[in-house]
Design goal:
The chain has 423 residues and is α/β, with parallel strands linked by helices. It folds into 2 domains: 44-359, Alpha-Beta Barrel (TIM Barrel), CATH 3.20.20; 361-420, no CATH class. It has 16 helices and 10 strands. The protein has helices spanning 2-39, 52-55, 73-83, 92-95, 102-119, 146-166, 188-209, 233-239, 255-260, 265-274, 302-315, 333-359, 361-371, 385-393, 398-403, 408-420, and strands at 48-51, 87-91, 125-127, 170-174, 179-180, 214-218, 227-228, 249-251, 282-283, 321-323. Helix 11 (302-315) links the parallel strand 9 (282-283) and strand 10. The radius of gyration is 27 Å and the shape is globular. 34% of the residues are buried.
Length: 423
Amino acid sequence: MQNESIFQYALIFCRTARLHRRRAGLALAKIHRMANADLYQPRPEHKFSFGLWTVANRGRDPFGDCVRPVLPPVEAVKLLGEAGAWGVNLHDNDLVPMDSPPAERDRIVKAFQAACRDHGIVVPMATVSLFYHPVFRDGAFTANDPEVRAYALQKTMQAMDLGAELGARIFVLWGGREGVETDACRRADEAVKRLREAVNYLCAYNLDKKYGFRFALEAKPNEPRGDIYMATTGHYLGFIPTLDHPEMVGVNPEFAHETMAGLNFMHGVAQAWEAGKLFHIDLNDQMPGRFDQDLRFGSANLKAAFWLVKFLEDAGYDGPRHFDAHAYRTEDYEGVKDFARGCMRSYLVLKAKAERWNADRDIQAILAELAAAPPSLPATGAYSATGAAALLRHRFDKDAMLKRRLPYERLDQLTFDLLAGIR
């Protein structure tokens, strides 16, 4: 009987302890949520921007018509202000319809500028549509028709005028139609020459007008053409040094464009950064091997998005974090606002995870061990005759080198645990 009473008291104690632990856990979770509520809220210093074409996208696809009504540019600015964005970017005709009379053009621009002021939104980047109108069916700067090439230059200069008027300092060039379905139509090297001539012309116009633009060239492997000439960021990094003003020209890598081809997007970004050419970046998400999906950032490839954010933050990238993505076709404009908030929140969550990764003792211990060098190892950072002689004399113990562990499995699992929220 006595043992039974002790057992009952012990059971009550255990239940009470569990209840207190549960309450304590809930309280801690609430405190954690409150602390992180502000951490994941976008602020101007984060430099989050969206294109007019992203939030105003009406959900049309090749198999179905629009599901959302027209969202005028001033309303798109209001939506972005309510979502907490810092900037809005635009193609020329996202704001001003083609062939608008000058008075109408000025009225539209003035109303847009007022909306940006009212909602605390800036215009960091502008671009030009050289792909939508049927006249560009064979390309723009690389088209066979000289008149089309001249019109493409005129349209781009007018878009630069608009961008400068709105305060943009970056001008993106995406050659969406600069490609082929058949290589019978032109020699590929002739296309490169035409593209170089066009970019040189625009750089000269930029200097003449004293706009101070930095041009950011955007690559894509295919779509809407069967093949696009400048397929990857690496193609453009090879092209830029051949220009008259290479210092004025960099790249605008897009997550989806490189991922479509199964490439590691962060590697291309890292190469552009190392070359001093990462002028702008387009963030979204994408499943490899699919059409250009432009998914909400971080929604499909969590680890790829994490490594990208970690690289940008560790490197000190201070340019716009631009989201070139679209809400699901199932959404109304409240859902579009959710989409915009989600892009920014995902970036900030991954930024916090990157900071935790950098502070994790186990992860950093592994990295330190991997980077450790024997004290007798000759220096190889910079060449010298004496250093080369020392390197040639040095005896390497390959068996000992082979025995050193490379614990990448554990390193990757620690990363997974951190991203999963259990570390």
